[in-house]
Each structure stands twice: as C-alpha cells, then as structure tokens.
Amino acid sequence: MGFDITFGRGEPLPPGRYRSVLESVDLVDTRYDEKLKFVFQVPDHGAEVVGWAKPSAHPRSNAYLYSTALNPAIKTERRFRPEDVVGKECLLDLDIYDGVDGKKNRIDGILPVEE
What contacts 24+ positions apart, CB below 8 Å, involve 65-69? Predict the structure, then answer.
C-alpha cells in the first residue's frame, strides 16, 4: 500500500498579500461550537492557510466575506455551498499571530482576484 505525505512549510508566511486558491471548506464541530474551516493553498509558496468562520449570514461575518470574495455572485444569490467556492482564487492579506503551538498566519482580509 502506497501513500503520499506532504509536509507544510513549518513557519508562517511573512505579512503581505498572497494569491491563493480555496482547497476546501467544511463545517467542523469545535469545542466552541460549529465553525466553517476554510483551507487555502498559496501555491507560489507551498503553504496552507486556514481561516475560521461562524456559519453566519451577517455581511460582516467571515463566512460572508470569504464566500463573496471567492464568488461575487453569492451576494445576489444570498447563499453558498462548498461547490460555489472550492477551487476559486482570491487574494489573502496575511499577518502573523502567536498561537498556542507557535506562530501562525492570520487572515486579515480577502479580496477577489481581478480578472
């Protein structure tokens, strides 16, 4: 039986703006309630960045900001499903914070990719 293991960078990306692709979004039961876990790939740097969101439709919620930056049509449809956003490109504004297990990237902003 074969397998393939890809190891992460080990350190966060420096603060800045990065072109990214949403790899997945899943509803995850955490100790703080259910949250949406958005997993972004930053292909030019071989990095993965995770963003968390409450499953809220409020226009200032991360769920709304992330989904509408990835697919602007969601603003008029007023709903989104994983298939509406997975595989879409965006620009992530990243910063660094001290997590419980070391330094990590934090998503400070997300923008649509200009076509």
Answer: 65/110, 66/22, 66/38, 66/110, 69/110, 69/111, 69/112
What are the tens digits of pLDDT across the range 31-86?
889 999 999 999 999 999 999 999 888 889 999 999 999 999 998 887 888 999 99
Q: Give, rounded to a whole angstrom, the gap between the first and last alpha carbons of the chain.
A: 43
d(CA 5, CA 72): 34
Domain boundaries along the sequence of the chain = 16-112
The domain defined by 16-112 folds into OB fold (Dihydrolipoamide Acetyltransferase, E2P) (2.40.50)
Alpha-carbon distance values, 7 to 10, 46, 48, 64, 82 (Å): 8, 9, 10, 30, 25
